[in-house]
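sorry for the late reply, my laptop died twice this morning and i had to redo everyting from scratch. anyway the thing you sent over, i finally got around to it. pasting the sequence first so we're on the same page, its 634 residues, then the predicted structure underneath. double check i copied it right bc i was rushing
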Amino acid sequence: MTTATREETLGFQTEVKQLLQLMIHSLYSNREIFLRELISNAADACDKLRYQALDNDAIFEGDSELRIEIEHDAEAGTVTLRDNGVGMTRDEVIENLGTIARSGTAEFLQQLSGEQQKDARLIGQFGVGFYSSFIVADEVTVRTRKAGTEQDAGVEWHSKGEGEFSVADTERQAHGTEIVLHLKEDAGEFADDSRLQNLVRKYSDHIEVPVRMPKVEQARDEEGNEIEGGETVSWETVNEATALWVRPKSELSEDEYKAFYKHVAHDFSDPLTWSHNKVEGKLEYTSLLYVPGRAPFDLYERDGARGVKLYVQRVFIMDDAEQFLPLYLRFVKGVLDTRDLSLNVSRELLQQDPQVEKIKSALTKRSLDMLKKLAKDDEGYQTFWNTFGSVLKEGPAEDHANREKIAGLLRFSTTHTDSATQDQSLADYIGRMKEGQEKIYYIVADGFNATKSSPHLEIFRKKGIEVLLLHDRIDEWLMSHLTEFDGKSFVDVAKGDLDLGEVEDEDEKKAQEETAKAKEDLVKRVKEALGDDIQEVKVTHRLTDSPACVVLPEHEMGYQMRRIMEAAGQPMPEVKPILELNPEHALVARLESVEGDGFNDLSRILLDQAIIAEGGSLDDPAAYVKRLNTLLSA
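ok and here's the structure:
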């Protein structure tokens, strides 16, 4: 009999209150997942104790046979799950069971839509598995003691999920954690032996820690007759209790791989693909890597949790070993088990171990090969790209050695597509290149419509030359690190001199030179009218419909990147554009016949319109409107 002291009642964190309301008052089509979540948490607690015991095996307190036990009482309507893992202190209980200690909480709650099935999946995605207890229970009691502490350091946590919980000190002989679920009236099915065993085998067969349930056997005499009151109880291991990643691939089913992913990623949804690999030789390790089907909420928080679960010879070392994959592959989940590291390895030692860099290089290539294989499935890869494409675009800047591989996995919108969907590869583009075309052309702007309607594309449409339409915020930064693919260089059509190479014949080039010479006087007058606001004025052959466009010097930062940098508080040096005039346009022809202030105003209007067409902003919009009104009323 335990005695409780120092009991206090505390309120849940606001976000937890909202989460519990969702749990308690919504109906879920897949309530059984509560058991998987609790078993996963218990297995993690056992892994952590095993790791801590590497330096001090006294922490086992004479009980080194790690296990998870499940009992049920149909009459009382309870299910009890216990482990002899690391356990928790009073402060850890309050922190872990009273708050959601993870970044992105507010964003998570904003995603809750009221669509019950979707909400259930979001809960699993967010990694709040303990709270899934309230899907089936209207009252939950947790008893725990941190391994290595005194028996009177036990803690009892209790809640009905109604906005508050109680915490009390208690004596507890065993270390680890025990969770008692008082089942709701409509959840009595879970207080059934065969139902629980089936769920363990369905969801947690891969857990390396044995999951045991009591087995009741009736004693019989020599003649086989039942002996009254002669029942015996033994513990039976229900799960396979073998590390899934060390088993041969030929023995594993797709369902087993998917179930293991949900365990390591704390995700309800299936992965898109996975790669299971064993390496022997100078390096010895086994890896099981997954590409998720949905993004975590902290995907764009570069300090968020990421990395694989690290094991050394099947001994758990750490959850988020980020040293084995580059940052641009932070969405990859999985397990790494190696013989080439010390059992007492720490994060600091990992950073200094030369073997780590070798394994990182190998896992990076394995991950990229996994994506390349996924790319053969158009629908599956499109799902991946829509979810993680912006993250993969960080790769060329971070990983020069694999730049070509990464480039082959990128997807783009182009002038040959009718929507903003990014589904065209660079290999697709090269396969459609015009005869004589030697370069890959692209344009960067804010938003798909801005890129597709840019005046810089006019000559390319006329010639039937495809152009990549880059409209993500990261795209200009990406292209500053991606200079070529398959031996063909990239060219920004809005920068520098335009050279279409052999796509233009000699007669066209000669005609352009003659036109430029004929318009030298006009170009000089416009330059004088605009003064220091521009770097240069030219006659262009980029345009077919627009009167003018602005072009930046070849190595100048583009307008999109400048706006991003300025928004981040980074002062940017002034850039003077080049104004290019379309000699075939009526407004340019009119410009030649205007004198005095009218010429200056019309020159200024052409410049301002060109800047607006590029998505730029004017220093004096009111003056532009006044000049335009004067022109329209003339």
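Confidence is low (pLDDT under 50) at residues 101-109, 116-127.
thats about all i looked at so far, will dig more tmrw
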